[in-house]
Write a structure and sequence with these properties.
alpha/beta, eleven-stranded mixed β-sheet, 33% helix
Length: 384
């Protein structure tokens, strides 16, 4: 069964809405702001989301509020009625959920030592929008958003739902920033995914959402498909709690499944690439090898790393990647990569530095990886 996208939503460091997101990506100049001191550590750079609209509902934290704004935009663009949503599915990717409620010792997690209930944001969204179909919270670390989109697609492909709202979100967390700092994974200046001088990630926050729908349902409702899912795959390295498996075998396996729906190489790849040298190298090599095995050439693919200007949005990252893929297909352009002085010679993909660059073929790959070796890859093409 063909799965299409009929609605997009986003709240990012560029502001509310996919329009603000696209203009910000084209600008390729976003620099992080200082984050608060964390556990006695020096302040670290962070990219904050800029939401519009109402304050969070009672009992909802910042992640839930960001997700609600992104879902509202996507649902509105898709033209979904209350009746449509009653039977719709809901998939949410998040690493920490409404962790701010725990960190300040408020809400239902009055004891700040109690881990946040990540599923709470899913229940809150379902209640707020009247989404009554199958629901799931995916918390596979930084690949959670990509998993949420893939699982949402499977609900449609297996006939469990005609419409699924797939979303992902995470907000600033003192615990997360402190942990990443202790592990030496943060760059103290900016995120430089394609530069040889990259020194780690920069944390960010935000939320993104897609309305996934069977092509038949979209036709019945008279909605225009914004993109079509060509393929998806997921896997686990089962290697290390944090580091990727150096050969990239399992990520390559996921990419091969996603590429099976395309004829040749995708026009572009929205990479997970976050400025961590080993992870970046393994990802680009695995994707390049999968493209070659599928009959294409890695050099034909335009590589793009949005975390350079958005920061690492954790559970939202994979959904942001899919939203960006749909926008790239809509505009026929790939934004320029930011913060590159000395390009990484180990990357087999072509890396646009001055742009935007025309999309050479109407298809885009999205890659998501996460702690624990969780990999998810999706491919999108222009809707027929």
């Amino acid at each position: 069964m063909t799965v299409v996208v009929t609605g997009l939503g986003a709240v990012s460091c560029f502001g509310s809405g996919t329009g603000a997101l696209w203009e910000g990506l084209l600008g390729a100049s976003r620099r992080p702001d200082p984050a608060p001191d964390v556990c006695g550590l020096p302040a670290r750079p962070h990219l904050y989301a800029v939401p519009d609209g109402d304050a969070p509902a009672r009992g909802t934290g910042r992640t839930g509020a960001l997700l609600a704004a992104a879902v509202a935009e996507a649902v509105a663009e898709a033209g979904l009625s209350a009746g449509d949503l009653l039977d719709a599915g809901l998939t949410v990717g998040t690493s920490l959920g409404d962790i701010d409620l725990s960190e300040r010792g408020a809400g239902t997690d009055a004891d700040a030592s109690v881990p946040p209930a990540t599923h709470r944001v899913t229940a809150s969204l379902a209640a707020r929008f009247g989404i009554g179909g199958p629901g799931q919270t995916l918390s596979t670390a930084c690949s959670a958003g990509a998993y949420a989109v893939g699982w949402g697609a499977e609900l449609i492909e297996t006939g469990q739902a005609d419409v699924v709202v797939a979303c992902g979100g995470d907000a600033f967390s003192r615990v997360a920033v402190g942990t990443l700092q202790r592990f030496g994974l943060l760059d103290g200046e900016c995120c430089r995914p394609f530069d040889t001088g990259r020194a780690g990630m920069v944390t960010g926050e935000g939320a993104a959402a897609l309305v996934l729908e069977s092509a038949g349902s979209a036709r019945r409702r008279g909605r225009t498909a914004l993109a079509e899912l060509a393929g998806h795959g997921w896997s686990c390295d089962a290697h290390h709690p944090m580091a990727p498996e150096p050969s990239g075998d399992q990520l390559r396996r996921s990419a091969a499944s996603a590429l099976a729906g395309l004829d040749g190489a995708p026009g572009a790849a929205v990479l997970h690439r976050a400025g961590v040298a080993l992870n970046d190298t393994v990802e680009a090599t695995a994707i390049g090898e999968a493209v070659t095995a599928a009959g294409g050439s890695a050099g034909e693919v335009l590589g793009y790393a949005p975390k350079a200007v958005m920061g690492h949005t954790a559970g939202a990252a994979g959904v942001f990647g899919c939203v960006i893929a749909a926008l790239v297909l809509r505009h026929g352009l790939v934004p320029p990569n930011a913060h590159v002085t000395d390009p990484d010679p180990q990357c087999p993909l072509t890396v646009p530095l001055v742009g935007p660059v025309p999309l050479p073929r109407p298809s885009v790959l999205v890659s998501g990886t996460g702690f624990g070796g969780n990999n998810a890859v999706l491919t999108w093409r222009a809707a027929a």
